[in-house]
Predict the 3D structure of the following.
Amino acid sequence: MRWTFSLLGLLVAIAGPAGLACCAEPEANQAASDAAAYREKVQPLLVTHCQKCHSGAEPKGELNLEGFLARGSVVPDRQTWEKISEKLHAREMPPEDDPQPTPEQRDQITAWIDAGLARFDCGQERDPGRVTMRRLNRNEYNNTIRDLVGIDFQPADDFPSDDVGYGFDNIGDVLSMPPILLEKYLAAAQKVAERALGTEQVNLVTGEIEGGQIIEGGARILPSKLEVRTKVRLFGQGDYMFRVRAYGEQAGPEPAKMEMYLDDKLLRTFDVNAVAADPQLYEVWVTSKGGQHTLSVVFTNDYYIPDQQGPHDRNLVVRDFEFMGPYPPTFKRLIAREHSPDDKMLLAREVIHGFMLRAFRRPPNTGEVDRLLKLVELASREGENFNMAIGLAMQAILVSPHFLFRVEVDPQPNEPTAVRTINDWELASRLSYFLWSSMPDDELFSTARLGTLRKGDNLALQIKRMLADPKAQSLVENFAGQWLQLRNLKIATPDKQQYPAFDEPLRRAMQRETELFFTAIMTEDRSVLDFLDADYTFVNERLARHYGIADVKGKEFRRVKLEGDQRGGVLSQASVLTVTSNPTRTSPVKRGKWVLENLLGTPPPPPPAEVPPLEEAAEAQLTGSLRERMEQHRAKADCAICHNRMDPLGFGLENYDGIGGWRVDDGKFKIDPSGVLPNGQSFAGPRELKAVLKLRQDDFVRCLAEKMLTYGLGRGVEYSDKCTVAEIAKAMKQQDFKFSSLILAIASSDPFQKRRGKGSEP
Amino acid sequence: MTQPWQISRRTVLRGLGTAMALPVLDVMSGPLALAADEKKLTPVRMAFVYVPNGMHMQDWTPAAEGAAFDLPYILEPLKTHKDDFMILSGLAQEHGFANGDGPGDHARALASFLTGQQAKKTHGADIKVGVSVDQVAARKVGQQTKFSSLELGCDRGAQAGNCDSGYSCSYSTNISWRTDTTPQAKEIDPKLAFERLFTGGGTAESRSKREKYRQSILDFVIEDAHDLQARLGAKDRRKLDEYLTSVRELEVRIRNAGKNPEQTAKLPDYPMPSGIPADYAEHIRLMYDLLALSFQADLTRVSTFVVANEGSNRAYPFIDVPDGHHDLSHHGGDAAKHARIRKINHFHVEQFEYFLGKLKSITEGEGTLLDNSMILYGSGIGDGNRHNHDDLPILLAGRGGKTIQTGRHVRYEKRTPLNNLFLSMLDRVDSSVESLGDSTGRLESLS
């Protein structure tokens, strides 16, 4: 793996005083030419078509354009211009009964507005935005439970699905908390506690004890190198606790030494410092199979000098001898302590504090722990054993808002200008949920505790470590799954008649290819431009047959080097080509729209609200190939402006059928995969189309940065984030667009590192 | 189609399900059990069943009005229940239209359907529409049953991408809105729905202990939430309010857990479903079964069921419609597409027929469960190609406890708000309100 960036270098790049190309341009010149364009091409149209209604004492829609039009500057009146652009794009204005601008004129206005909106001032005031408190979504809940208690049993699979906003299902504003969900949380918490701590009675294993000499109270004394032992029958494989309460009759230079054995295996040697007045518990965890076993305790340092003054006879006294289990593996991790205090409430406090810190992803305060101990007391009063009592507290933790939500508390929550850098605990959580869709691990927690996460290269090093961890597969499943819309592949229903080759193994193979492709770019730290085009991919026999790649046998996926023009990059992967098709045929419109939305970040405006009435559409009998029919449709000027952007991109992919198979004919028609984009660029098939897209790598990188930022922050990217996005793209360019440079630039950005008080409440 | 298919369905149930008798809940000692009043014993239930992408209206709307109405192709499956429902033509949900918000008719159709309000156009930062009619009723009468309302569906929410022209996916997947900003998620897995509704397992003693513990857990988290509330900004606080509201709802549920044992005792043995069946029709029918059972046991009186999410592009190959429903609905006047859409519409009504049959087979007082119910069936879009939200396909089944004269086709004045019907329905479940959404008054000619 090649990791060459340094955090310091990157931060300098981001914070560099030169700023961005867009902003460094001599502003006076630009302003002048802008104003001229406005006066000549835009203002007259707005006056003709808009001002009549939108002026005077009672302007329509409470929008008065007088004065506003005279100013003619987008940035200060950004929100109003945005609205105007939207209405024009959607052809909602002017009202249909009024004279309409020609499509070209309409385009002229919106182009000017949109260009103005695209300019932004990356000055010193930087608004990092504010993420609304995020509830864990289903994936995050499952992963968090897995990492918190150590059982991967996916309780959230029973939860209702999370709503999607801005294309992702981890958006704080959209994740709601209906009663049914809380009910499921409560049930899941109970299940988790039961599974983690073991509700089935944990057995006290007993057997007849042999050896030693019985003294008062049933204890056994081991006066010389003797052992006590017992035979036990264990109930099954698992963790057992072997516990001995003992003290030494001390004499000589060292305390009594005690060895504990399971069968012939020495588990541990203890110095038994305890004395008769205060025997102590000595315990050791052991993993064992079921069946017959022998437990033994051996006294190893006999000391006896009869003539000596004072204590002269060292002995080991064993009072109790307990063997308990089996415990679920998680128990050891959650409850066991090297030296558990005898006082149960003290132990409870320790256990709860530790669990709470990890569950709340920050240190709990004393009051919080105290309140939970009351639950432990309550359960104890009800006659529950220690584990059950702890289990009840654990359940409360798992339905607490501090666990279910990712809470970031601000000192001045309602002050929009109060910007703060989030603390290291919060940063650790943001990182881990970004890259792992889960809670921080021990190492991240430890950097948070030490306050070193931002020191030196640590952030970069942590990111490197995290991306290499198998848990980063969550980024593939959740980010790539939504960005590339892979998740929709599960519900795609290609027509069996039309595509007899499509079956479940192929569906799974399609999915796997794209996941492995993304994983390769991530873990090998390759250039993100590989997404657009690459000379490698991953196939198994089934998919290789679908692609016409020879010599691949078996179900296992392997990397193959791609030859020829047919494949390379996500656009030629069957997964993407299938989710952008209709069940019975390809959809050049959907494919074109997909490219604009997910690769270029320039989504077409939605179609006009009023679809042409039936009769009109029925009159125009469309004939010919799919392409010809669509071109006839596109002849309508109203449709053309957007469809001229979408359709050619889709035509360029027409060599791929509705499930991504290569074809040269569609029924009786020959495929014509050529196209011309509105800017005049033309291409003659998928390979040339990709070349055209690669020319627009800046758009692609910005688009990917925006998507990743949305996902990483859990909120929509706002106008105020435009500078951040540009800076991320710039930092990536300096690092040859390596995947890690994208992640590091996001994690280092203001929106990720900071937050402010609330914005305007809608 | 229906006959052999029904046989296979039983086989599936027997093969996969665990035959499990419904538990008998605690003996209740509340006013409900003692009330002699028949109205109390047989309360009126209401359910709203939603089908997406509009309807092929030419084959839905009867030509004749009044009692002698005909049954066009889509309604044919209901011929044995012709006296038990009415068709209401001409009703509109004005806030399904753009009203200045541009495209996004599918999102608006579902969001406005039970609210009668305009969904705020947003990708997610500030979703907002209005309280839906079922939740108005749930608030008023929900306290009397274990579940104040029951939200069912067959589709998960969107898995990726944008749902509809700048609208958050919340709008096109949720029909029920508890507050104007909080949608009620739906249960789509029949097994989970069954468990939630009917299992309260264990002995009375262990149950009461568990409930006591749950209550103390909730007490704990309420305190947590209150502490936190004071320290949050406005938007975060809204999320926490949702949380607290849900906690309180759950407290009520814990209190009501043991209600209505007599009715539960009367329930037939019903096999526990084993999960989401691969067969869509089977899935729909299982959900209808559970809905009927929960009405029968008076576990809830208010429900919604979204048969498919709005804008659904599900294909129906099992009735020879391999195309996606949404793609088809933009038929552009193509006769072949018309034929397929009405097939889909017909299929959905066939399943609905099964539900009505089920409700009718359950005797309650002097009549049937259907007599004591109001089951609304319809879509928030008229013609899928035009995306119009007036002249909606609306069917109302059940007599609402002898207050609705069924067996008729009534044509209302154009653009009569659908919400007027909702006001009239709310009256019949003791949940009267003065207005709801864009209502202008109560709907005439129901009785």
Remarks:
- Residues 1-26, 613-620 of chain A have pLDDT under 50 and may be disordered.
- Residues 485-697 of chain A form one domain.
- The CA atoms of residues 137 and 549 of chain A lie 39 Å apart.
